Amino acid sequence: MDTLFAxxxxxxFMLPPGLFIPLLLLAxxxxxxxxxxxxxxxxxxMALLLYLFSISAVGETMIRSLENRYxxxxxxxxxxxxxxxxxxxxxxPDIDGLGQMTGGSAxxxxxxxxxxxxxxxxxxxxxxxxxxNSGNESRIAFRQLTGLGVPESMIIVEEMxxxxxxxxxxxxxxxxxxxxxxxxLVTSAFHMERSVGHFSKLGVSTLPFPTDYRVNxxxxxxxxxxxxxxxAMSNASLAMKxxxxxxxxxxx
Length: 252
Fold this sequence. Notes:
Strand content: 5-15%
CATH topology of the largest domain: Rossmann fold
Pfam families: DUF218
Low-confidence stretches: none
Protein name: DUF218 domain-containing protein
Distance between the termini: 51 Å
Organism: Heliobacterium modesticaldum (strain ATCC 51547 / Ice1)
Number of helices: 9
Largest sheet: 5 strands, parallel
CATH class of the largest domain: Alpha Beta
Keywords: Membrane, Transmembrane, Transmembrane helix
Structural class: alpha/beta
Number of strands: 7
Strand order of the largest sheet: 5-4-1-6-7
Mean pLDDT: 95
InterPro entries: Cell_Envelope_Assoc (IPR051599), DUF218 (IPR003848), Rossmann-like_a/b/a_fold (IPR014729)
């Protein structure tokens, strides 16, 4: 066993969320010594669940099951590119203004800009201001896309939507009004199935172009993947959120 990996593995139990696992096990041991089997079993179960949902071996498997459902086409073609937002800051400094697209959204924006260069198709940026303390994603994306060389005339802003369902609804209005029939849909790979589902529900057929991959397509595990981490827990949480969002689409 590599000493560095061993140190990292041990260290992972000294920071959240790994820190809470030994604390729960200590609580279980305390209750067991007090002959309080109910609380002891509950603490043990919570420690096990926390461990499982905070290791990459589980989190990556969950997110990979969503990301691998669509692959980017080799030769994408369409008459418009739909880029869905996914978060933005309001007042953080940028090169030419305030506010930035967050990590996943920035990846979507970069992919949309590159697809525009490849296809010459205009870009519909579909995203509004979700919370009072978050940025207006479409306006920030408009500024950043023009900074990357996309002409203003080739960017269409849809800034009313606050979730995926509204993305599809308001974007469809633009598609109908402007006569677009072959949209290329750009969003994070883990979010693609739910996005395609909402557009399909409205009768809009899209060409999925997933981006912003969180994990490798092929599973490759090492000792570090069995250590708890906030990133692994974030992947598990994202996957659970997507599956919950897919339930209404499956039921219909």
